């Protein structure tokens, strides 16, 4: 891509009244956290395929994550999942991250794999098991202190498979009381991000089945609790961007788990099947960042952007790079929306003009823009090519098969 493509693009956007310098600043500021588990082996309930070269421990997962940050400059932090990433000494893990130019990000408790949790964790009718689950999350709060993390992102597998299996309202009460114990243990700068999902592994009812249930819990807990939107956790046809807008307006949107889905919680590369949805999510965020209400603007500015994907059949590091590039692309396109044109059309109730003002931004090729941004921050203009041309992928083959797996 030569200078001329960018010059043409610059002129095109100047003619539309878009301040490209500001757009570039915003692209540079977008940071996306990658998940440690995205570098390990994962699969479906049918099979986990083992790949050669997969990290054998949390230290090696960080080394792989550092490659993604090296070529994109956009992924300086890594989320941990406990106990998948449990280590003896978190100071050592933190120093290792720092030596790689990374920080440790959200701590994700695991309330779904312990044998005790067959009938649930924080909602279990057995008080001892509920306490065990609460204690695990409290341990994660301690880990967050040691790793310098400020986010606890909590997903529950709790639910039932059959009508009558347990009392839905009592489970709701148990959940709130468990969450209150966790919330009270957090330091003032920490945030509890509550993730919801409509089904799986429970198939009849799920205790945090949708954004409304997560929102209700976050509201009852207090300011430090917010909702986490995992883009793959909705029923077919759900308007995810409306949920995003609603939660932003209530100042309760805390973060995202980005991934793509076709049928259910498929955990595919974000933006691979539904790029327009991702673009429209960013449209809502950028719209909120221009809101009159300072609280809404602040909420939009503090969103934790995280990837949550399972790379079952694809090589993991390039899959993560692809994900980051897809997010950057849709974000860059959303930044090209002419918000005054949208507003004008809305005021005139001109449906077609309003829809056009949003869609036309999606239709621009932002490659020259992203190349220019990367050149300015000193990362390869084509991060995927740079990674594939490096020998890192070859070198890690020496790790062999049978690395970390969920
Ligand atoms: C559950 O489906 C989920 O989205 C939660 O965020 C978990 O922590 C993660 O996946 C595990 O892969
Ligand atoms: Mn998730
Ligand atoms: Mn999921």
TrEMBL record:
InterPro entries: L-rhamnose_isomerase, Rhamnose_iso-rel, Xyl_isomerase-like_sf, Xyl_isomerase-like_TIM-brl. Keywords: Isomerase, Manganese, Metal-binding. It comes from the Bacteria. Pfam families: AP_endonuc_2. Residues 88-266 form the Xylose isomerase-like TIM barrel domain. One of its GO terms (molecular function) is isomerase activity. It comes from Dictyobacter halimunensis. This is L-rhamnose isomerase.
């Amino acid at each position: 891509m030569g200078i001329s493509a960018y010059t043409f693009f610059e002129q095109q956007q100047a003619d539309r009244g878009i301040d490209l310098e500001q757009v570039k600043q915003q692209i540079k500021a977008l940071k996306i956290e990658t998940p440690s588990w995205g570098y390990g082996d994962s699969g479906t309930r049918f099979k986990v395929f083992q790949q050669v070269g997969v990290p054998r421990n949390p230290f090696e997962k960080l080394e792989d994550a550092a490659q993604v940050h090296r070529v994109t400059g956009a992924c300086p932090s890594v989320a941990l999942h406990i106990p998948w990433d449990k280590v003896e000494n978190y100071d050592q893990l933190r120093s290792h991250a720092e030596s790689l130019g990374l920080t440790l990000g959200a701590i994700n408790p695991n309330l779904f794999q312990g044998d005790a949790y067959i009938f649930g964790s924080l909602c279990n009718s057995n008080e001892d098991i509920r306490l065990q689950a609460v204690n695990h999350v409290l341990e994660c709060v301690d880990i967050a202190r040691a790793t310098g993390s400020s986010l606890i992102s909590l997903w529950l597998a709790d639910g039932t498979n059959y009508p009558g299996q347990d009392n839905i309202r009592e489970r709701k009460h148990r959940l709130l009381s468990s969450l209150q114990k966790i919330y009270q243990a957090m330091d003032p700068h920490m945030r509890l991000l509550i993730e919801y999902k409509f089904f799986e592994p429970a198939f009849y009812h799920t205790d945090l089945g949708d954004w409304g249930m997560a929102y209700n819990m976050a509201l009852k807990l207090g300011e430090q609790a917010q909702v986490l939107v995992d883009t793959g956790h909705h029923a077919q046809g759900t308007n995810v961007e409306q949920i995003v807008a609603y939660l932003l307006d209530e100042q309760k949107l805390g973060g995202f788990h980005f991934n793509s889905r076709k049928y259910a919680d498929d955990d595919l590369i974000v933006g691979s099947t539904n790029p327009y949805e991702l673009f429209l999510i960013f449209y809502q965020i950028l719209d909120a960042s221009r809101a009159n209400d300072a609280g809404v603007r602040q909420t939009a500015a503090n969103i934790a952007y995280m990837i949550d994907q399972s790379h079952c059949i694809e090589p993991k590091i390039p899959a993560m790079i692809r994900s980051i590039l897809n997010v950057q692309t849709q974000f860059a396109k959303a930044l090209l929306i002419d918000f005054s044109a949208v507003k004008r059309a809305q005021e005139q109730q001109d449906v077609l003009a309003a829809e056009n003002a949003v869609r036309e931004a999606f239709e621009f090729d932002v490659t020259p823009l992203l190349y220019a941004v990367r050149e300015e921050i000193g990362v390869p203009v084509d991060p995927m090519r740079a990674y594939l041309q490096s020998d890192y992928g070859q070198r890690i083959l020496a790790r062999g098969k049978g690395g970390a797996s969920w």
